[in-house]
User: What shape does this take?
Amino acid sequence: MTDPAVLQDTWARGLAGLTPGQVGDGLESATRETYPPTLPKFRELCETGQQVPDVESAYVAAVKYAGALHRGVTPPKVHPAVYAAAQDFGTHSLLNLSEEVGRKRFAHYYANAKVEFASGIVRAPTPVVPKKLEHGVPGQEEIAFWADVCRRMQTDKAFAERENPILADVNAGRITHEMYRNGLANRHMDAKKAKYEAAV
Assistant: This one.
């Protein structure tokens, strides 16, 4: 039997230079393998997990991501550069522009996002959204409301910073959904009033 210390040293040297994020990608990919990967195979899984997709694949992934947000369901995992481009371009535009126009415009934002990613800047979605709805099967209005909250958590930094701790209370059961909806409406009016008074 190989000495565990030797195995540890071998794997440490074999994975040298990888980031924690890459190792995490490798571990996630390894769960989809039929057999446990060898060291060279595991390193390959780590490295390919962070490869930037080509623009066509990125566009398709971004549209799927935007569609999930629109439906109010958990969006699929996407590469950080794809996520950044989708946010800068706008999920609404991804879903509503024609495919020809959307692809051309997305390519512009994606080129900038790839440069950003290559420089070490990694943007990733970190919204807090309610774990479950209160009344069993939700109605369309309720689905639309939470889908809009999720969208704004992804696209509006100020909104996300303000609402994240409040939504954490919703998840913990300290605030009901009705209380949150009423409070959000009041906070929206207060924000509009403050913006108007600042402009006067």
Q: What stands out?
A: Residues 140-199 form one domain.
